[in-house]
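Entry
Fold in token form

___
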Amino acid sequence: MLSQLFILSSRGDTLVDKDYRCDSVKGAAEIFLEKLQEHKGDQAPPVLEVDGSFFVHIKCNDLYFVCTVKPNVSPFTVLEFLLRISNVCKDYCGVLNEEAIRLNFALVYELLDEVMDFGCPQNTSTEGLKAYIQNDPVLVKVDRQAGTVSSGLFGADHRIAPSTAANKPVSASRQEQLTRKNEIFVDVIERLTVLIAANGNIVRSEIDGSMLVKSFLLGSPKIKFGLNEDLSVGKSSHGYGTQVRLDSINFHQNVDLEEFDNSKIISIHPPEGEFTVLKYHISGELPSPLPFQVFSLIEEMEEKGQLIVRIKIQCDIPVKDYAVNVVCRLPVPKSTTDVITSISGAGETSEYKQNDKIIHWKIKKMQGCSEVGTKFIVSETSIGHFHDP
């Protein structure tokens, strides 16, 4: 059983605190934060123990979802429960951030009352909770960009919605229900992990992708997704070639695969809210070039005890496209005492985190086929310590 659940901001503010069994230690949120600060960055394990009290937590969008539990509770069950709680809050608030939780704190408390009873999880289904939720969501204002329209096959228009278009709650207010559209949003998200040697050669590369769907359709009708007809699963001895080849693919439990083998079509009755239709993995030789190349030059100034680090990022995506919110994390030696940055481009910022010994260089927007560069002056106590692990 779970004793207590609370949601904290990245600054340590308690946004939501729900005590189900009244048997947890006093000041549990403060105790958790003190224990969390003992670990640098995001290196804290998901389960923390303090004087016999166990804290199980996950971090989503700079929010900490934390549960206090007894020693006889499975931590994996609690982690799965916290993940579902975060998904339910996102579905009903539209977005998952500090502002959304603050504006919808009454709605969040109502959700927490329904998903668990006296510390026992009950119902974490977005669709199943709608009959019990009475509070209307308060929308969070976001910058909504206009969608783009491109010509498709036989003159048909393909409309691409902005990334913020799906940031709305599944439970509309009574006034919005009269004008609400029947919509469904599909996002393909890929995580590219690449290990590059000093000479620029790729040592190891992997792609973990997922297809996310957020449904606002009434009645949960059956929908079909057509995948690439050249899609094949399993890597051959000749690499990927011209085919769309995946090492592995996993589907949602409700996906109908009757037409997948012959026509690469999958069917599903989408539940309300956001869910993952499929996940896939690619390793080895990548089917396309890397979107970015990073070049570095380090100059040692022993007489001043400084390092001059020059970084250049080259964006190799098509010129008509652009990348947003690019972040470059540069670790520095443990003996670093100060960092001087030289940022001149518009929309660029840099921050040196002393505790983590990491420089964060952020680029708000980067056009395709372009490059940006910057210089950092790293001061340290001893230049010889730069090569220490």
Observations:
- The two ends are 43 Å apart (CA to CA).
- Residues 193 and 206 are 5 Å apart (CA to CA).
- Confidence is low (pLDDT under 50) at residues 144-158, 383-389.
